[in-house]
Amino acid sequence: xxxxxxxxxxxxxxxxxxxxxxxxxxxxxxxxxxxxxxxxxxxxxxxxxxxxxxxxxxxxxxxxxxxxxxxxxxxxxxxxxxxxxxxxxxxxxxxxxxxxxxxxxxxxxxxxxxxxxxxxxxxxxxxxxxxxxxxxxxxxxxxxxxxxxxxxxxxxxxxxxxxxxxxxxxxxxxxxxxxxxxxxxxxxxxxxxxxxxxxxxxxxxxxxxxxxxxxxxxxxxxxxxxxxxxxxxxxxxxxxxxxxxxxxxxxxxxxxxxxxxxxxxxxxxxxxxxxxxxxxxxxxxxxxxxxxxxxxxxxxxxxxxxxxxxxxxxxxxxxxxxxxxxxxxxxxxxxxxxxxxxxxxxxxxxxxxxxxxxxxxxxxxxxxxxxxxxxxxxxxxxxxxxxxxxxxxxxxxxxxxxxxxxxxxxxxxxxxxxxxxxxxxxxxxxxxxxxxxxxxxxxxxxxxxxxxxxxxxxx
Length: 459
Description:
- The chain has 20 helices and two strands.
- With 459 residues, the chain is mostly helical.
């Protein structure tokens, strides 16, 4: 399949800035603002953050560079890219399965991601209506419980968010994906900084800062390390086909290394700012950081309910959380949509509709796991025990499928591809390339294997 034909099917980013915004939009989303604070709270604070940053540098950044490299080298959907590159390197066709695993992981993540985005949409309406003005911590918690215990309401928001995602993806690269991220991501950062500024006035900013940045290693477990590594993959959108798909639309004259550092840096800063915004509010209102998935929905409304112009800023912030989720969601659905366009000769509109409906259907399980199915649990021997449908999907994808995807990407690029092809495509500074190649060939795979085997209690 010629590069001209591939370009005509999917299009291409207009330039480096567009790709950085799109990839950052994929990375920066609910994982930073919703998930990072609550898993940090569940795993002891500063020690977990330190391990997470360690994973970003030694695992996340090298794998992201490798995944972008594969995407640009193949120029197709992740499934077809891995099949084509495996043939070029005279490797077994089973490597095509790496593309399938990533694409499926992306859809599973989107299925529950859409439900959480629906919470943010519901909170946008409530914030605009002034429901949280003067609300206490108990009052906000009761509002959250009332929302999540209503399956019909959650299903409606889940449906609306999936329709929004399908609409953007159906419009293609420049007219859909690129336009959506050009103005959404800067606005999100501005609102997050405003919230951090408010957190400094709560009287508990120092306590929140210390909790986030002063490590207590006695609170770390092997499971915490696995969660940190899994979140490094989750927050950078690695191992799920999204970055490989976006890399396929990246022009050849753009540096993979420079863009990766910018994306990873922006993503990490947003996560840390989210922690600085949320934990002071948590401590100022005598709440526990280990609130689980509902943390930001039980803390941020308190802040907005008490601050001047809180209705305005609160509404804008939850709108931007929805937009951040939206930019991530379109990247999660893109790999399977691109595959349908390439292999089944479908228009992007029909492909988006098919994959969107499938993802919506899986997401119904997550909707019900907060109410009707809340007592129904699943177990994966050696990994998870007695988890809801939602928690099972979250744990299976973030802690199993994504790290395995990253491991196989590192093995394929570092050991199975011709070294001269990798060096030519990367086109990086010699020292930087040498460090990256050593990491992707030896360090990254070893760390992923050790952490994973430790977590499943095989070592």
